[in-house]
Amino acid sequence: MIQETKRITARITQVIVGLSLALLYACSAQTQDASEQDLNRIHHVIESQYPEGDRLFDVQLPASYSTNSDQAYPVLFHFAFDNEALEWTNNVVQDLSSNGQIPEMIIVSLHHTRSTRSDIRPVIEEARRRGQADRFLDHIEKEVMPFLEMEYRITDDRILAGWSRFGIFTTFALAHKPELFSGYIVRSSAPDGSVLHPKLQYMMSQNSDLSVVFSFAIGTKGNERRRRDVFNNLESLLTQNAPSTLRWRAEVIEDAGHVETFQPGLRSGLLFYFH
Q1: Domain limits of the chain?
Q2: What's the start-to-end Cα distance of the chain, in Å?
Q3: Burial bucket for residue 63 (CB in 10 Å: 0-12, 13-18, 19+)
C-alpha cells in the first residue's frame, strides 16, 4: 500500500512538472513573439514645423523586412490614439498578409492624445471651430513622407486609414491633397457634409483623372444610426461626381456599433484596395 501510494505521488509529481514546463515554454514563446514584434517597431521623433514642436510616430516593419533586402513594401498610415488601436490594426494586417490576401505592409502609427485633437480637426468657420488639420497634413507630406522615403524601402502604395474622428481627417486629406495617398479608408465617421462634401465635389471636378481608392463604412447599431444620413449623402455625392478613375465603395456593416466597425471596416478596405 505504501509503495503504491509512493508510485501515485511520483506520477502526480511528474504530471505537475510536465505541465509546468509546458506552460513555461508557452509563456516563453509568447514573450519571444512579443519581443520580436517590439524589435520590428521603431520609434521616431521629428522636430516639426507644422506647428513647431516634437511629433512622434512609430514604424512597424513586417517580419520579412530584414531578410528581403531588395523588397519594398506598401505603407499603411493610421492614428495610434491608444495601444488597443495599434494592436487591432496590426492584427488585421498580419492576418490578411499571412493568408496571402494582401502584401506585407509597413505600418506607420501617427500618435495622438486628447490634448492634440485640434491637430486633426478641420477649420470650420461657420461653427467657429479652429482646427489645424491643414498643418498636420503638411507635416505628413513635408516631414513624415520624405523621412520614410529616405529611411525605409517603401512603394507608392500609401494608404491612410481613419476611424471615428480620425476618419474626418482622412476625408479632409482626400478633399485637400488627394494624390498624397493612393488609398483612403474611413470607418464610423460622419464628416460634416456642409463643409467637407462641397470640398470633395470641387476636388473631383478639378481632378478628372484622379486615380485613388476610397472606402468608407458605418455600422447599424447605437450612434451609427445618426451617421446614416451623412453616409448616404456622401455615397450620392460620389455616385454623381466621382471620376471613373476614382475607385470607391460604401459599406454598411450589419449589427456593428461604433467600436465594432474598427477592424471589419479596415479589413474590407484593405481587401478592396488590393483587389
Answers
A1: 43-274
A2: 71
A3: middle
Q: What is the DSSP string of 15-44?
A: HHHHHHHHHHHHHHHHHHHHHHHHHTEEEE
- Relative to beta strand 183-187, strand 213-219 is parallel
With a pLDDT cut of 90, the percent of the chain lying above it is 58
Q: Which amino acid is at 138?
A: D
Using a cut of 0.90, tell me whether the model's pTM lies above it.
Answer: no
Q: Does domain 43-274 have CATH number 3.30.70.250?
A: no
Cell numbers 479589413: residue = 267
Residue 262 vs residues 38, 92, 113: alpha-carbon distances, Å? 23, 10, 18
**Cell for 46?**
521629428
pLDDT over 80 (residue 193): no
pLDDT at res. 238: 96
Mean pLDDT of 116-145: 68
Nearest to 107 by CA among 127, 93, 95, 122: 93
C-beta separation of 186 from 217 below 8 A: yes
Pairing of strands 154-163, 183-187: parallel
Residues 131, 118: Cα–Cα separation, whole Å:
5
